[in-house]
Amino acid sequence: MKIYEKLLLENKAWAEERKLDDPGFFSRLSEIQTPDFLWIGCSDSRVPANEITNTQPGEIFVHRNIANMVVHTDVNLLSVLDYAVTYLKVKHVIVCGHYGCGGVKAAMSNHSYNKILNMWLKNIKDVYRFHKTELDTHTNEERKFDRLVELNVQEQVLQLSKTSIIQKAWQNEQRPHLHGWVYGLKDGIIKPVFEMEACSEIDPLYKYDDL
Ligand code: CO
Q: Check: CATH 1.10.10.10 for 33-206?
């Protein structure tokens, strides 16, 4: 059997099991999705949103990219955010990073990957620059790496709050609550590191006053 064929076979078994557990499962989900959460996570194969939160299909709207970044020129991310916030009306947006993130580690090095990857990793290098004073106090490289993962998540939550999408939803519907979490690959535990409740104060420089 080819390795991809195993996936198709497992899928059949999974669908059967679901139907046995809950006969209305697929007909219900095929009609509508009403997730309460938007998850912005890392593409890393070891951090699957549904598994680590023990949630089911239909519960979390998901976007993943390298190092869970919220980049304001990323049309993909912004489309997902707009759809989830404006149309699905999610109550929570979670940016979930993870310790041991390869993207963050790569950004800490001076190695050139290629044009596209360098362009993406530059956004993480910027996070390092914003917090250079604190990060450079860490003599332990591992600790510094962990801390940059946490600060990156915090920075991406702030990036969310700078979008007109979030600011408009805060103004009109007092949602969503923004969360910055970090998942531990070694123990499977998610640690909340930062949050912004709906309608939190933001730097006036980024605040729109005519939404
Ligand atoms: Co990662």
A: no
Every domain of the chain and the residues it spans: 1-31, 33-206
From the candidates 101, 146, 175, 179, which is the catalytic residue? Answer: 101
Q: Which amino acid does the sequence have at 173?
A: E
Nearest to 178 by CA among 166, 191, 168, 190: 166
77 alpha carbon – ligand 1 mean position (Å) = 16
At 149-189, the pLDDT tens digits run 999 999 999 999 999 999 999 999 999 999 999 999 999 99
Q: Please confirm, yes or no, whether 146 is among the known catalytic residues.
A: no
pLDDT tens, position by position, 104-143:
999 999 999 999 999 999 999 999 999 999 999 999 999 9
Q: How far is the CA of 211 from the centre of ligand 1 (A)?
A: 34
177 has catalytic annotation? no
Q: Report in angstroms the alpha-carbon separations of 170 from 130, 157, 174, 177, 209.
A: 26, 14, 4, 9, 13
Q: Which two tokens stand for residue 137?
A: 């106090």
